[in-house]
Design goal:
- The protein is an alpha+beta fold and 688 residues long.
- It has five domains: 2-56 and 93-147, no CATH class; 61-86 and 155-283 and 548-565, no CATH class; 288-362, no CATH class; 366-526, no CATH class; 568-686, no CATH class.
- Helix 12 (394-408) packs across helix 13 (430-445), helix 13 (430-445) crosses helix 14 and helix 15 runs antiparallel to helix 18 (512-519).
- The termini are far apart.
């Protein structure tokens, strides 16, 4: 019975490989040989007792890995080693021809890589099960050289450098090691590094609760780094991680990290010197408080940018006093001199890093302060708390709900999640609030709230659009305009939403443009969306309740894939439906598709809006687009500025058909239904 259950488990695992890759291996008359077959043939064999399914494994690039680092003054040298190279098949003696041997070797190597990929994708898979699967596969002639032990197959580094103390445990991989490993494992990152001879680096930290994970410690605090090149960003990667009962001690947690930061000037990899550039460090408000050793966000002197004094009103810290008495902006010198002692809770180690400015190097974090902060607060004021002039009646709430449902049909694939009903507001994620404050706010609330409230919302909406636009943030006057709009929005906040509502996140809105001015990048550049995704992945690496730090470090050593976010797609990529006509194409930061309503609208360089109908000459880099022209009928709102100044127009469909080359496409548009007409606006990250 036990043997039968084990065979069924192996069968299911092999079927997973089939589903992951789309092709499979089926049994032949020789039970010790496995050959390639079609999916239909596999389906016919599913009911047989001989479990012979597997999948063909697509080849993947081989990445070089970092074996060790040597330090020489402020230059760090990374050397190569063959000790951690990808799995290589031992030489076999068989009666097969040399060509067959080469093909079998390729199959085995690809199988190893695919098993590694699946284990990385599903980290909860028990290693005992993986070993049983490998034993079954190695019993065949084709895969008899397959490793049968999980650490050998996954190339797990069993040595760990976990440090334990009375409060928790941690491990430190080091900045140089983590950065060099990422560069050497990604061809695209390495190419960018060689072009610029630099390593533009940022780091972030945040705490994550482990109450759902099977561990005895309650929180985990990682330090994750990220590389930023023009058009390319790496995924966040772990440098150091702490597990404990509460927030780590600042000195103990950051001591090694800061010492390394102070020493690094250049990093030498493969005899090439790369200039190390520290761009910024960020996190949510509690994380920045830990980084800088400053008062928390509920303190009277909480603001990191100015000397405003908060006042407790109805158990909330209100910062509306900033609109009565103009506060003084903080500077790096005033921070170091402790000009405002109540703002500090201690001495930050990062004050010792010469390349860091304690004000400008720590930007506010838009995901928590803006999207999950102010935007979520605005919606709760209207639909949940129903306080102030902005509160909505039940009838008006129904109208907004219907508009929300209509928007789903036109939601483009650029948005990670589609909005859900307002009754599920507690389940909304940060990306949903980002869609509202960047795209949907005017369509949802025009004609529903009072005109005065709507104008106040449009100040907020217009400023956010400016600060998230790659084109607008390059214009100093536009960024300053966004700052004045946000100052006006904050100064009138209590007027519309009630006394004591200008809390920390609301007050911080008037400082957002300052970080955009300093970094000359959009808000999303220094947000923590990618970091939050990484945190969720790290939590899933924990399998048991003991030695969480050692588990995570070993799982990270097994990872071979480096994910890179490529912002610009060049050349054009054509996407077909099997062998049928062209259905979609991707270029630069734009993906147009005929399959969905939300992905077929675009704007040309003259500002005219079109709906894509078909593509002709689907080869080369400049095919011909056949499209219908949309007619602009006016501005959608006029305060604080006409909506057309932000590229937002009311439009109608027309029968005018036109043809033009792909090179005329300037940006992708989103079309939103509104009371029998449509509103069009550019999708910001597609603008160049």
């Amino acid at each position: 019975m036990a043997s039968s259950r084990k065979r069924v488990a192996v069968h299911r695992a092999l079927q997973t490989l089939v589903n992951e890759t789309g092709t499979s291996l089926s049994n032949t008359q020789d039970s010790n040989a496995i050959s390639f077959s079609s999916q239909s043939e596999i389906n016919q064999n599913l009911s047989q007792d001989v479990f012979s399914q597997n999948s063909t494994i697509p080849s993947s690039p081989t990445f070089e890995t970092v074996a060790g680092c040597s330090q020489d003054s402020s230059t760090y040298i990374v050397s190569d080693s063959d000790s951690d190279s990808d799995y290589s098949l031992p030489t076999t003696q068989d009666s097969m021809s040399s060509d067959d041997e080469i093909e079998f070797e390729s199959d085995t190597e690809r199988l190893v890589k695919e098993l590694r990929r699946l284990c990385e994708k599903y980290p909860k898979v028990p290693q005992s099960f993986l070993e049983e699967l490998c034993k079954f596969l190695s019993s065949t002639k084709v895969f008899r050289d397959l490793p049968v032990r999980a650490p050998t197959l996954l190339k797990t580094d069993l040595s760990t450098n976990v440090i334990k103390d009375s409060t928790g445990e941690s491990f430190n991989l080091g900045i140089v090691h983590a950065v060099s490993e990422h560069l050497l494992r990604s061809d695209l990152l390495w190419k960018k590094a060689m072009e610029t001879k630099s390593i533009p680096f940022s780091f972030k930290t945040d705490g994550v609760s482990l109450h759902k994970a099977p561990v005895f410690c309650k929180t985990a605090w990682p330090i994750v780094g990220q590389l930023h090149y023009d058009g390319v960003e790496s995924e966040p990667f772990v440098i150091k991680m702490y597990f404990g009962e509460s927030k780590p001690d600042h000195t103990e947690f950051f001591k090694d990290f800061v010492e390394e930061l102070k020493l690094i000037d250049t990093i030498k990899i493969k005899d090439v010197d790369f200039k190390f550039k520290l761009l910024f460090a960020t996190g949510d408000a509690p994380a920045r408080s830990l980084l800088k050793c400053t008062a928390g966000h509920t303190a009277t002197k909480a603001c990191e940018k100015c000397t405003v004094v908060g006042k407790s009103i109805n158990h909330r810290m209100d910062f509306a006093q900033a609109q009565v008495t103009e506060p003084i902006l903080r500077t790096h010198e005033s921070f170091l001199n402790r000009d405002d002692p109540a703002h500090h809770s201690g001495h930050s180690l990062f004050e010792q890093v010469e390349s860091m400015n304690m004000i400008t190097s720590f930007p506010l974090e838009p995901m928590h302060a803006l999207d999950e902060g102010v935007t979520k607060r605005l919606i709760k004021h209207m639909f949940v708390e129903k306080k102030g002039k902005a509160r909505l009646t039940q009838q008006k709430s129904v109208i907004v709900g219907k508009r929300l449902d209509a928007l789903k049909e036109f939601s483009p694939r650029d948005f990670e999640r589609k909005l859900v009903a307002l009754r599920h507001l507690r389940a909304w994620k940060a990306t949903m609030f980002r869609q509202v404050d960047t795209y949907f706010l005017p369509v949802l609330f025009k004609g529903v709230v009072d005109d005065e409230v709507f104008d106040h919302l449009m100040q907020f909406f217009s400023a956010v659009r400016i600060l998230r636009s790659p084109v607008m943030v390059t214009k100093p006057e536009a960024v300053e305009t966004a700052g004045s709009l946000l100052r006006s929005f904050v100064s009138n906040y209590n007027k519309f939403y009630g006394k004591g509502q200008t809390v920390f996140n609301v007050h911080c809105m008037q400082h957002l443009h300052e970080d955009v001015q300093n970094l000359k990048k959009t808000l999303d550049y220094f947000s923590t969306y990618s970091t939050e995704t990484k945190l969720g992945h790290l939590v899933r690496l924990i399998r048991t309740g003991h030695s969480a730090a050692a588990q995570v470090q070993r799982r990270l050593s097994e990872s071979r894939e480096v994910r890179v976010r490529q912002l610009d797609q060049d050349p054009v990529v054509y996407l077909r439906h099997k062998k049928g006509p062209l259905r979609a194409l991707r270029f630069r930061r734009i993906e147009l598709s005929l399959n969905t309503k939300g992905d077929s609208f675009y704007m040309d360089w003259e500002g005219q809006i079109f709906k894509l109908l078909s593509v002709r000459g689907d080869h080369g880099d400049d095919p011909i687009l056949v499209s219908n022209m949309l007619v602009k009928t006016g501005d959608f709102f006029h305060t604080p500025y006409p909506s057309s100044s932000l590229g937002i127009h009311k439009v109608e469909f027309s029968s005018v058909q036109t043809q033009h080359p792909l090179s005329k496409v300037a940006a992708k548009m989103i079309l939103m239904p509104f009371d029998g007409t449509f509103v069009a606006m550019p999708i910001l990250h597609t603008c160049v």
